[in-house]
């Protein structure tokens, strides 16, 4: 039984073209994450989740946005501002 080389060549050409094509502007991977849930925010700051929650409770990090029930989000710029304040900038 023979192998259908036509499909193989088309597939190989498509893979080669994908490697050469730059990422399309406006795709999600081109934009930094704008907001984080508590676990991701804590990871971004490289602190524990409980420390993050304590900082929010103490008012050192703003309270979250609540776009829907059960979803709490902190903006990246709020976290960056907190880091700047810790560094004394």
From TrEMBL:
Domain of life: Bacteria
Protein name (database record): Helix-turn-helix domain-containing protein
Organism name: Acidithiobacillus caldus
